[in-house]
Amino acid sequence: MIGEIEAFASAMRGALRAARNTTLSYRRDLNDFHRYLMSGRTALDDAGDKIDAARITADHIRNYLAQLMNSKASRATVQRRLFAIKAFFRWRETTTGTPSPARAMRSIKTTKRLPQVISEDAVATLIEADGAPDTPATLRDRAILELLYSTGLRVSELTGLCWRDLDTELGMVMVRAGKGNKDRLVPAGEPALDALFAWRSAMPITWSPDGPIITNLRGARLTTRSVQKMVAQRLLRAGVDTPLTPHGLRHCFATHLLNAGADLRSIQEMLGHSSLATTQRYTHVSVRHLKEVYRRAHPRA
Predict the structure, then answer these.
(1) Catalytic residue numbers?
(2) pLDDT at residue 241 is higher than 60
(3) CATH architecture of 2-96
């Protein structure tokens, strides 16, 4: 089965043109399912040291998902694992003709959570909480925060940017092979561009058009984990109580645009959502904001 998982991952990268992060996530989830089957050894006892994917049944999949639920895995995690398993067996069905045991299995119902956002003033406090004189590190961190909030990029898209992806004359950023392996153009505001120029002038290495925009102080491309740690430290320094991740700035970007009157279609395009339904969840946050404003302002609310 391991060999088939790798073949499936290769097919995702090639013919299916899946994003790198999606491929890695599916491979990781399928390997976890394989480890479960190897440890269980229930109906597959006589398979030796290898699992034959052709002998996997719907009961094996259901028992695996039940174990995940019992181990307190979130419903979103369980649903993602099921998506990976269903996709693997659909691919296997097309390549081998063996019917998928997951074909009739329904997706796990998940609780709908509203995106976590902070106010515009809190975002400004977060961005401006440099806490030190201008240094390469503080200038880079400010550029990261400005760009995340200005463009609504995913953190993986941010760390993947090169200088050639930035059109300074038009004030646009080209996001190459974002989620769904699709390119898109996103506007960047003047504060973000100014912060990028300040960082570029202070970079400890000589920048090049094909080089990464966001690097560590040794010149290597910064990791998403490093960005997450920086945002967490910045929240503490700024005294912002609401927990926020780099992805939370993407939520702030969309919600603040919607509150200011931007239309959903434009927000959808800037976020790179394939479905408008995904973007529409921000309307719930916006409505909640409007109701709170109404409650505070109307004399007979």
Answers:
(1) 154, 179, 247, 250, 273, 282
(2) yes
(3) Orthogonal Bundle (1.10)
